[in-house]
Amino acid sequence: MIKFKNVTKVYEDGTEAIKGINLTIPKGKLVALIGPSGCGKTTTMKMINKLISPSSGTILINGKDTSQTDEVELRRNIGYVIQRIGLLPHMTIEENISLIPRLKGWKKEQYEGRVDELLNLVGLEPKVYRKRYPLELSGGQQQRVGVIRALAAEPPIILMDEPFSALDPISREQLQDELKSIQNTIHKTIVFVTHDIDEALKIADEIAVMRDGEIEQIATPSELLSQPANEFVRAFIGEDRLNARQTQMQVIDMMEDNTNYVHYEESEYTLIPYDATVQEAARVLLETGKPYLMVIKDGKKTGSVTARGILRAVASEGKKEARSV
Ligand code: ADP
Ligand code: MG
C-alpha cells in the first residue's frame, strides 16, 4: 500500500505543483492518476520512487516513510515505465529485460527463464526476439518490452507514466488489454498516469482525478461515471460519455429467448455479469472464441447470449445512434 499524507511540492522556481494531497493506493490495485497536462500527475508519481522529493508531508510504502528508505533499494523494488521507454539501444531485448534481475543477483537459468516467460506473456516469440536490438522492433513491440522489463524482477509496485500515449490507437488498445490480463494474474500495486479518460475507465480499479495540484475525486470507474463529484470532473469525463453509459445496452437485454442454456457444456461458454455492456460482451466473445456467454445475475445463471445476438445488438445500437444524429 502506498499512502500520501498532506504531500506538497513546490519547485525551486516557485511553481506549486502539488498542493497538499492525501491518497491511498491499495495493495494489488491499479490506480489511475488522470487530469489535464500540468496538473501534477508526473510529479506525484515521481515522488513515490524518490525521483522528486516532497516539500512537505509524508509518503509511506507499506507503512514505511520513504524519506527514511534508501533510494537505490527503493527503486529496485519499484518497476517504472515511461512514455518513451528508453530501452538501452546497445543491449539486446534479453539483456534489457534481465537488467534488474541481474543487478539483484539472479542466476542465469533464473533470469533466462523469466525473460522467455515475459516475452510469451506479451506475444513476442522468445526465439525470434531475445537477441534482437530495440531498434529492430516496432514502437508497439518496444513498449511491450518496456512493460515487461518493469515486471521482470517481480517488483511489488509498478509506476507507469503515460506508457501507451505515443502508440497508434490499435497497439494502444492491445497493450491496454494485455496489461489488464497480466494484472489479473499478477495483482501488483500499479500507479498508472494518463490523460485519457477512456484508458483510465478501461484499465483502472480506481481513478484519482487531478486538477491544478489537487485531487478532485477518487472513485471506481463506475462511481466516477454515475456520481462525478463536481463540474470539473463531469466536464473532464465528458457529458457524451455520461449519457452514453446510461443508454448503453446490457447483456441481460440481449439474452436469447430459449431454455436450452441449462444444458450447455461448461466448455462452451464464459460467464458474464448481467450488466456488462455490448462492447464488453463482444470483447469477451472475441477473446475466448466460445459460442456462448452465460449471463449471471444474483450468482445464478439466467440465460445465454450468442455471438449472433451480440452482433444484432451492436447493429441496433448503431441504428439508434444514426437516428439521433
Ligand atoms: P503532469 O504530469 O500532470 O503534466 P507535472 O507533474 O509534470 O504535470 O507538472 C506539474 C506542474 O509543475 C506544471 O506546472 C509543471 O510546469 C511544473 N513542473 C514540473 N516539473 C518542474 C520542474 N522541474 N521545475 C519547475 N516546475 C516544474
Ligand atoms: Mg506528466
Tell me what the structure shows.
The protein has helices spanning 41-48, 71-76, 93-97, 99-103, 108-121, 126-129, 139-151, 169-186, 197-203, 221-226, 231-237, 239-247, 278-288, 307-324, and strands spanning 2-10, 16-25, 30-34, 56-61, 64-65, 78-82, 157-161, 189-194, 206-211, 214-219, 269-273, 292-297, 300-306. The chain has 325 residues and is an alpha/beta fold. The strands form three sheets. Strands 6-7-8-3-9-10 form a six-stranded mixed sheet, sandwiched between helices. A hairpin with a 2-residue loop joins β4 (56-61) and β5 (64-65). α11 (231-237) crosses α12 and α13 packs antiparallel against α14 (307-324). The protein is globular. It starts with a strand and ends with a helix. Residues 11, 13, 15, 17, 35, 37-43 line the site of adenosine-5'-diphosphate (ADP).
Bound molecules: adenosine-5'-diphosphate, magnesium ion
Instruction: Compute the number of strand runs.
Output: 13
In the CATH hierarchy, what is the superfamily of the largest domain?
P-loop containing nucleotide triphosphate hydrolases
Give the count of helical stretches: 14
Output the CATH class name of the largest domain: Alpha Beta
Largest sheet composition: 6 strands, mixed
- Please give the share of residues in helix: 40-55%
What is the third-level CATH name, the topology of the largest domain?
A: Rossmann fold
Beta-strand fraction estimate? 15-25%
Strand order of the largest sheet: 6-7-8-3-9-10
Give the low-pLDDT segments.
320-325
Shape: globular
Mean pLDDT: 88
Structural class designation: alpha/beta
Radius of gyration: 22 Å
Number of separate structural domains: 2
Named at the architecture level, the CATH assignment of the largest domain is 3-Layer(aba) Sandwich
Q: Which sequence of SSEs, written as H and E, runs from N to C?
A: EEEHEEHEHHHHHEHEHEEHHHEHEEH
Report, as a whole number of angstroms, the end-to-end distance: 47 Å
